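Mods, move this if it's the wrong board.
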Amino acid sequence: MKTAGTCPVEGCERAIPGRFNSFCAFHHFMIPAEYTRSLMRMKIECANTTDDDARAQLQERLPTYIRLAMSKLPQDRRASA
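Not the wrong board. Structure tokens:
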């Protein structure tokens, strides 16, 4: 079972560094930068918005964007090494 603060990649139990990262450093650098930047931008926007509806919408979309980014991992690296 995944806990908050651990990498969402199956089989990886590494910690997620920083407040706005979505993956451990090992997997973060395997995902194309445009996906990790997009996720980070979305998390920052979610944290900084004062509109509760906008925050709820961003939080609702976040898991989908994380799954999309994980799909960009090289096939042999989807589980942690």
